[in-house]
Amino acid sequence: MLRNALAVIFALAIPLASAAEEIPLDPNQVSVQDASGKTIAVFSVKQLQAEFPQQTYDTRTPWTSDNEKIEYRGPLLANVLAKAGITAAQEVKVVAFDNFVSDIRMDEIRSYNPILAVERRCNENESANPHCAPGQDFRPISMVEKGPIFIVWPFDQLPASYVPARNSIWVFFPVILRASQ
Known about the structure:
Layout: H1 2-22, E1 29-33, E2 39-44, H2 45-50, E3 55-59, E4 70-74, H3 77-83, E5 91-96, E6 101-105, H4 106-112, E7 115-117, E8 119-121, E9 138-140, E10 150-152, E11 174-180
Parallel strand pairs: 1-11
Antiparallel strand pairs: 1-2, 3-4, 4-8, 5-6, 5-11, 7-10, 8-9
């Protein structure tokens, strides 16, 4: 009986260990995977800033007050997926550093142009603290602020039915973008 129990434990432990090894441990990078789960590209925060045109959204989020906007900057999610060769997928499964999973349809990505935000604008209150040097316009997004990478949507362009029903598309610290058919 003990031998059978150990056999079951080891049989389950090997696939779980293999799956855990595939999840990146660095929230400062995002892996793009094909539908089979094979990694086809990895982009660090620095690459997301340097290798793609930057889009800026001055927007609310589902968690800010009605009059509170934050200006975020980063590449369009569609551009990152396209550079990795993900153009025909129907959906993208997003896995976050904390193991949160969200399924985002490609038609949503094409219609509303979310960004992989990697920076947020310095505000007047921050100019006196170490986050922003004098004259610095943008700074990295901390983990407390849902960074270092945060999928940000243009809030006011989303249908009213999306809040709160689709709040899961605002993914904090995504580490895997996996194509789904």
